[in-house]
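Good morning,

Attaching, inline, the backbone tokens for the sequence recovery test we're adding to the shared suite. The designed sequence is right after.
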């Protein structure tokens, strides 16, 4: 299996992006500077920046720091936490001269004053009105901490309050920012740091307030010393945080989030989504890592990179190329090459070429192989991969096929008819006979109908077979979670915002969101009208979701459907053009609910003729 975090190995063809980022960092004429490495959640931002920063490991003139604002959230003010972390890193990496020590001491004191100002309102009532001492130590002002220490009971309260008032009213506060910038530049010069590189990670996971505090801290340093700030984030999240803060400005005609970000970030670098060939290469590299020894892996990767350098746009991964040059290695990786080719197109389209999602798919694949091994069962990786594609993108069909093969001892005639494209109107899988994604999936080798017993492949996927057991939220990106939250908010504004954001996430996450909403619907004793409408509206956003909507609707009893939902269902029918399928479902509901029957017949009269 593979660690779900950044890597120092480049399987994503990031070499040109790494070099661009390195060039910006090394160019002294650009200092101080700020770089935005933008990309979707899981696109490889942290890996790209980590690989770039590693190129400076042996450069004594450069100090690199990684700051994760998300770790400090809720514990410390992000602005002062970042500033303090920078000073800590300098102190850790340099032996300070007397002048530098005085300089850094003054900078720490400036940060303490900023903390005091930040927390003044928060703690003011407790300190000045009640004289409370319990919270005063949180201010971390050196002059205060030295007073309280371990003698909270005997402390001079009046003395503490006077100290706070003196610090807050000190004229030095008004000049604090300018002096901080000047002192910081002097510190870098005194410690012989030509370049200070600060990588801000996980910023798009933070709250809007934390994001803004961090950006404010960066702005403070942009006018001081030889600093490079690199922000790895989804720029949409950062823009949203700014926009949310200033959305009440009257007469605002511009995208203030975008404008603010463009002023802070001087050099944006955007990570492109992986195409099918790039996904194939990425998956191949991951699989080779497990198939081969370290030396063999290094040998084949270097060979493939040389081939890519020569052919570039025309490079194709092929068993014959590897086998011709490295025959022993070629035999070892033959199956992995077949699996990567099998998965690449579907994952590139369905997951928008997202490396993190691809890695998680492979981790699930390997985990199930290991489970089978521990049970003494041998399974074919290519068959398992094909079954898992169905589980990821068409979970209702996955559950239906699992049910069919289980009742027929692992070999179902319906699966054969599905793969041959010969399903009839009476077939149990008829809802999917015209589904474009399913048709393409059926063309992928191997054919499931040719497997003697499919039961082992579904046995180790049992957690996905219960439609009432929803694990999808754990797999979603922050953006997808936000969309799901808005859909289940049951507010018109929330649902509309979710629908508008549909194109910002991949097909896999769209399906997971649809299923999560449906799980909430069936978890209640009665169908929630607003939740049902959100389910249908979301199901209309992408064609790949149509058959999933139909399958879920067919599983609902007519007893749970009320008259007010009929127009919503009819609207879905007209937009998806799934007239035959919807009419069949409404016919079933009419039989199950006699009170609903007249309304259904009136609403769907003359449809399908």
């Amino acid at each position: 299996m593979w660690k779900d975090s950044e890597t120092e190995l480049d399987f994503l063809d990031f070499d040109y992006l790494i070099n661009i980022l390195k060039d910006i960092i090394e160019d002294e004429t650009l200092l101080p500077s700020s770089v935005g490495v933008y990309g979707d959640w899981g696109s490889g931002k942290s890996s790209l920046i980590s690989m770039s920063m590693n190129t400076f490991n042996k450069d004594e003139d450069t100090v690199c720091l990684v700051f994760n604002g998300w770790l400090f959230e809720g514990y410390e003010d992000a602005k002062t936490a970042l500033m303090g972390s920078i000073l800590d890193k300098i102190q850790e990496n340099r032996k300070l001269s007397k002048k530098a020590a005085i300089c850094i001491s003054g900078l720490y004191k400036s940060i303490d004053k900023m903390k005091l100002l930040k927390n003044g309102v928060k703690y003011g009532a407790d300190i000045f009105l009640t004289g409370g001492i319990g919270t005063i130590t949180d201010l971390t002002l050196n002059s205060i901490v030295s007073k309280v220490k371990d003698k909270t009971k005997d402390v001079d309260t009046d003395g503490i309050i006077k100290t706070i008032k003196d610090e807050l009213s000190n004229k030095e506060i008004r000049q604090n920012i300018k002096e901080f910038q000047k002192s910081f530049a002097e510190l870098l010069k005194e410690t012989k740091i030509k370049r200070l590189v600060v990588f801000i990670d996980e910023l798009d996971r933070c709250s809007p307030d934390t994001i803004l505090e961090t950006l404010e801290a960066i702005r403070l340093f942009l006018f001081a010393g030889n600093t490079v700030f690199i922000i790895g984030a989804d720029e949409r999240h950062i823009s949203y945080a700014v926009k949310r803060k200033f959305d009440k400005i009257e007469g605002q005609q511009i995208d203030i989030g975008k404008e603010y970000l463009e002023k802070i970030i001087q050099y944006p670098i955007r990570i492109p989504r992986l195409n099918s060939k790039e996904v194939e290469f990425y998956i191949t590299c991951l699989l080779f890592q497990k198939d081969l020894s370290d030396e063999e892996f290094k040998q084949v990767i270097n060979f493939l990179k040389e081939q890519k350098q020569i052919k570039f746009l025309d490079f194709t991964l092929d068993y014959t190329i590897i086998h011709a040059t490295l025959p022993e290695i070629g035999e070892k990786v033959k199956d992995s090459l077949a699996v990567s080719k099998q998965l690449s197109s579907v994952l590139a389209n369905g997951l928008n070429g997202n490396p993190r999602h691809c890695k998680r798919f492979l981790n699930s694949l390997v985990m199930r192989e290991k489970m089978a091994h521990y049970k003494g069962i041998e399974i074919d990786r290519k068959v398992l991969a094909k079954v898992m594609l169905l589980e990821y993108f068409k979970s209702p069909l996955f559950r239906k096929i699992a049910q069919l093969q289980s009742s027929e001892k692992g070999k179902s005639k319906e699966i054969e008819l599905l793969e041959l494209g010969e399903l009839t109107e009476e077939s149990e899988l008829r809802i999917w006979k015209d589904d474009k994604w399913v048709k393409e999936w059926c063309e992928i080798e191997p054919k499931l109908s040719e497997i003697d017993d499919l039961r082992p492949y579904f046995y180790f996927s049992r957690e996905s077979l219960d439609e009432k057991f929803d694990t999808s939220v754990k797999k979603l990106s922050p953006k997808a979670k936000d969309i799901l939250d808005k859909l289940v908010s049951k507010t018109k504004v929330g649902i509309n915002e979710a629908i508008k954001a549909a194109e910002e996430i991949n097909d896999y996450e769209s399906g997971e969101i649809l299923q999560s909403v449906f799980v909430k619907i069936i978890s209640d004793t009665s169908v929630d009208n607003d939740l049902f409408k959100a389910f249908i509206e979301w199901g209309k956003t992408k064609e790949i979701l149509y058959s999933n909507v139909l399958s879920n609707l067919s599983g609902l009893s007519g007893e749970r459907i009320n008259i007010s939902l009929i127009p919503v269902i009819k609207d879905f029918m007209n937009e998806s053009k799934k007239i035959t399928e919807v009419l069949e479902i409404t016919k079933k509901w009419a039989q199950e609910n006699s009170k609903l029957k007249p309304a259904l017949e009136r609403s769907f009269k003359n449809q399908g003729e």
